[in-house]
């Protein structure tokens, strides 16, 4: 059974999707790649995972909570899961670059060249925004690049985390 529920954030409405095992999705309603959820086996309700995610988001958006213990039910290709696992390693208030992630993926997978485009694509298709912090990934020159919910949302999230020295 998939539970879905909305959360109203300072930067827009968010759809939360969870099973009883973990959070499966956190999507801004205006973002690219918004899921087409079949209403079969979906319950518009709040389970414990969604309830705890909402509590975390309340704290996150007021700058009170820098980490979470919400179980995640991550679905994707092995490549996507590798990239998303790397995103989970980026500390609150810190950033990295698409370039750095691509170079690290190349090392891990013993590739001759860094898969820049594939890494960007995997990051762009992150299904659990904020908790898998794709907003902490910047361009090689430390500029704000790509975010499924828009650059202004990315900038806002980094502002909450007091990230400095970024530019549009």
How is the topology of this model organized?
Elements: E1 2-9, E2 12-18, E3 23-28, E4 42-44, H1 48-61, H2 78-88, E5 96-97, H3 98-108, H4 116-124, E6 137-138, H5 151-160
Parallel strand pairs: 1-4, 5-6
Antiparallel strand pairs: 1-2, 2-3
Helix pairs in contact: 3-4
Structure description:
- It is a single chain.
- Helix content is 33%, strand content 17%.
- A hairpin with a 2-residue loop joins strand 1 and strand 2 (12-18).
- The protein is globular, with a radius of gyration of 16 Å.
- By secondary structure, the chain is of the alpha/beta class.
- The N and C termini lie far apart (41 Å).
- Strands 3-2-1-4 form a 4-stranded mixed sheet, covered by helices on one side. It has a two-stranded parallel ribbon with strand order 5-6.
- It folds into 2 domains: 2-61, Double Stranded RNA Binding Domain (2-Layer Sandwich); 78-160, Orthogonal Bundle (Arc Repressor Mutant, subunit A), CATH 1.10.10.10.
- The chain is built from 5 helices and 6 strands, in the order ββββααβααβα.
- The mean pLDDT is 92.
- Helix 3 packs across helix 4.
- The chain has helices spanning 48-61, 78-88, 98-108, 116-124, 151-160; strands at residues 2-9, 12-18, 23-28, 42-44, 96-97, 137-138.
């Amino acid at each position: 059974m998939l539970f879905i529920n909305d959360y109203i954030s300072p930067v827009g409405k968010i759809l939360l999707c969870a099973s009883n095992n973990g959070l499966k999705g956190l999507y801004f309603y205006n973002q690219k790649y918004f899921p087409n959820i079949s209403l079969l086996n979906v319950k518009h309700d709040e389970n414990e995972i969604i309830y705890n995610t909402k509590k975390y988001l309340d704290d996150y958006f007021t700058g009170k909570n820098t980490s979470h213990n919400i179980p995640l039910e991550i679905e994707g290709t092995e490549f996507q899961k590798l990239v998303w696992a790397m995103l989970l390693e980026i500390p609150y208030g810190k950033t990295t670059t698409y370039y750095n992630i691509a170079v690290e993926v190349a090392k891990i997978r013993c590739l001759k060249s860094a898969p820049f485009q594939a890494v960007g694509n995997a990051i762009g298709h992150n299904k659990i925004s904020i908790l898998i912090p794709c907003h902490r990934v910047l361009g090689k020159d430390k500029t704000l690049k790509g975010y499924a919910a828009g650059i202004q949302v990315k900038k806002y999230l980094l502002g909450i985390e007091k990230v400095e020295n970024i530019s549009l």
